[in-house]
Amino acid sequence: MIKSDFWRAFVRNKGAVLGLVILIAIVVLAAFASVFFPGDPWEMATAPFQPPLSEDALLGSDMLGRDIASGIAHGARVSLLIGLTSTAAALAIGVTLGALAGFHGGKVDDAIMRFTELFQTIPNFVLAVVLVAIFTPSLTTIVAAIAIVSWPPLARLARAEFLSLRSREFVQAAITTGQSNTTIILRQILPNSLSPIIVSASLMVATAILLESSLSFLGLGDPNAMSWGYMIGAARTVIRQAWWMSVFPGLAIVLTVLALNLVGEGLNDALNPKLARSRG
Amino acid sequence: MLGFARLFASRLVKAAAILIAIVVMNFFLVHAAPGDPAMVMAGEAGAADEKFVAQLREQFGLDRPLYEQLGTYVGKIVQGDLGFSYRQQRPVWDILAERLPATLVLTLTAFLLALAAGVALGTLAAVAVGTWADSAITVIALLAYATPIYWIGLMLSLLFSIQLGWLPAFGYETIGAGYTGLAHVADVAVHLILPVITLALFYMAGYARLTRASMLEVRGLDFVKTAKAKGLTQSRIVTRHVLRNAILPVITVAGIQAGQLVGGSILIETVFAWPGIGRLAFEAVLQRDYQVLLGIFLVTSIMVILFNILTDILYGLVDPRIQVSQ
Hints:
- By secondary structure, chain A is an all-alpha fold.
- Chain A has a single domain, classed as MetI-like (MetI-like fold, Orthogonal Bundle), CATH 1.10.3720.
- Chain A contains 14 helices and no strands.
- In chain A, helix 4 (68-104) runs antiparallel to helix 5 (106-121) and helix 6 (124-134) packs antiparallel against helix 7.
- Chain A is elongated.
- Chain A starts with a helix and ends with a helix.
- In chain B, a hairpin with a 4-residue loop joins strand 1 (84-85) and strand 2.
- Chain B has 13 helices and 2 strands.
- Chain B has helices at 2-32, 37-45, 50-59, 66-78, 92-127, 132-146, 149-163, 181-219, 222-229, 234-272, 277-287, 290-318, 320-324, and strands at residues 84-85, 90-91.
- The mean pLDDT of chain B is 82.
- By secondary structure, chain B is mostly helical.
- Helix content of chain B is 80%, strand content 1%.
- In chain B, helix 1 runs antiparallel to helix 12, helix 5 (92-127) runs parallel beside helix 12 (290-318) and helix 10 packs parallel to helix 11 (277-287).
- Chain B has a two-stranded antiparallel ribbon with strand order 1-2.
- The chains are: A mainly alpha, B mainly alpha.
């Protein structure tokens, strides 16, 4: 019942459907990257500087003869993987802090919000660059750095939800029946505050992918993982001679991030129907 | 005016607290950075024996307890000493000071352009709600949100400098042209166009969306109906009544996003070889020059705090309620 309502609201948003279709295509491309493009994307596949639509490189080859199309397919894996895991990590930090602040209020709330404000003031991309550079680039450090710079909005959101739900009757009832704070937070309030958190999380995956691509553009990507940002960064100096090396990976990023943003808006319409309708 | 002064003072206190926290954080990052400064110095001096390293450690207080080192560090920062870059053999502050003006010009221009153009486009979309202009602005905003700014920069330079040859692709001025006075300013301004537009585009999209939503909300409020009933002209209602109130949340968000704008300048300066601290950050990453990188972290954080104060002042100037209490 709820599910079919959800779908009906989601499908009403044409952009969201388009986004979902693109997203599924990218997930398939990532999942079957080694089937579509067997072999190492770092290996020389053809002659260097092949333009697009050449015989053995549909999207052309780069200055070392690596296949651009293969790089994009394998790069999709890295982007999606980092986008999802770093969002999960940011959710863990942000929702925990926000829940504690909103539930306890008072001094705990004050302290946590000051801490959040500090992290919102720090230029987050600069901090991510510093963290990855100091702790050497790898998938783990990149995920950790992205999570560390992106949790504050989630904390604010979770805090606002917890603050408003805390005074509702069902929570008061749970308190009088003597349930522990942990139970109330996890079993009573959290399930009821999930929809806005899910919407922001879906948008955060998009931001995380942009952040990862920016880091690898600067040469701070995992040296063993082919990524879209790395491809653009490496091709930057030869853009005059070979536009395709930077254009196609860039389009891949735009499509992925756009699809995620559209799906996020669709989720918003479907999960917060009142808000969507009042927005007209 | 009193309310504004009080608000401003409380913001300054807050800014100072945040600054102290950032300095402490920077200290711990300096400690986490690989490479013992004593070892590096010994390496530079060409003598790496135990005794010499220990002597250096004592001389620079590296054998002291952590809190004592923190005290020394804070003391140095207060005096403007941000450490020493062993790679460049120069004090970090000297390197940064040389690059700072270029970054300030770039980020300030982009910030003001994003705010002005974003509010203008958002107002246009709100006034023309439901028309093609509104949809066009919404679609552009959606695209700008999904595109990595360094890639926009590359594409714009591919189009406007490489294909069309209208604008310089990189740099701060024409090398070897030797312009002076107004000609020099014009030369720098031409070089500034692409980096500023690239940096501003993303934020402009966000402010346009926000202005549109905020104006549509304010438009339905009672005081706007009153203004209409008084028989004021449409343009006067939009500019004096709706926009003035609708712009407040935009300024708040602009202040919050200042940090991202400053961070984005690393990418933009890298793409356009703009000789500011963003480009310096890229070079420091390549050379693994952690002292310079941490100096940049501190200086950009201070820049964000200054941007926040600037937006507070803007807010105070625009907010109609503060005028009323005068």
